[in-house]
Design a protein that fits this description.
The structure is a single chain. The protein is an alpha/beta fold. The protein has helices at 11-23, 47-51, 65-74, 89-94, 96-116, 151-170, 192-201, 221-234, 251-262, 287-293, 301-314, 316-323; strands at residues 2-6, 28-33, 55-59, 79-82, 121-127, 173-179, 181-183, 206-209, 215-220, 240-243, 248-250, 269-272. Strand 1, helix 1 and strand 2 form a beta-alpha-beta unit. Helix 3 packs parallel to helix 5 (96-116) and helix 7 packs parallel to helix 9 (251-262). The longest helix is centred in the N-terminal third of the chain and has 21 residues, at 96-116. It is globular, with a radius of gyration of 19 Å. The relative contact order is 0.13.
Amino acid sequence: MRLLVTGGCGFIGSNFIRYILEHYDPEFVTNVDALTYAGNISNVAGLAAQYGERYEFFHADIANADLMDELMRKHQFFAVINFAAESHVDRSINSPQNFIHTNLVGTSVLLDAARRHGVRRFVQISTDEVYGSLGPEGRFTEESPIDPSSPYSSSKAGADLLALAFHKTYGEEVVVTRCSNNYGPFQFPEKLIPLMVINAIRDRPLPVYGDGLNVRDWIHVEDHCAAIVAVLLNGRPGQVYNIGADTEMTNLDLVHRILDHLGEPGGLIEFVTDRLGHDRRYAIDSSKIRTELDWKPLHRIEEALPATIDWYLANREWWEKLVL
């Protein structure tokens, strides 16, 4: 079968393409990416040479209806997996229009084109941020109310609702996934883990928002990719699936783990003015996908975080081009 992966030059999308091509021969993948700031063509370097006709790249904006129509006429896709998104909260606060364009309008264009061209499945990749902030107890379930706090999360929440409405209105086989914070290779350097690693090895301050006690639930990107495949193949249309690894940690604890692995002093930490609308805590209840689709995370942060840090140490050429 052939899959249309949008945003496949981003962090999670590129890892998903590598995962699907490596583990599911002979699937074919068409990667669509507009190559905005976080879409890096080097994230998929070598895939065309390694996999031949099983992989192709199409440079386009998913909000361009004519180009999406042209692409879906070219191939009979089994599914669209929509990773394409503007995803950095700080950027959404400064420039929300870009997030509405890609995350909401782009999703609408894809849904409509997929419906008209007979695409069987549509997997909308979302985020736990659509739920807003938790108190000190409890976890987000699929039944938790949507309460986004930023232009980014509100644009993703709107896209989720639009996708689910396409299922109810047109019978499109839409499934939505909402995942906790990802870590792993190829993550854009402005995100928390790569930013802290890169600053630490350059002896630069590590900016930590507020008191650093905001809690996030972390999952390795490869575990996320495996969960998406499970949803793609066996998820029930019209359903939402939360994806998490039960790995809650304060931002400050995470930063100290990074410094400890690098052998760098805690004095590099610099507390900065908190982000506007900064959610205090996220935690995911992923029992639904574990029970229904027999998925579970395989990576423990005790081993996977150091391996991720080591990847950035070993791939300076990749991130130096982006940072400098």
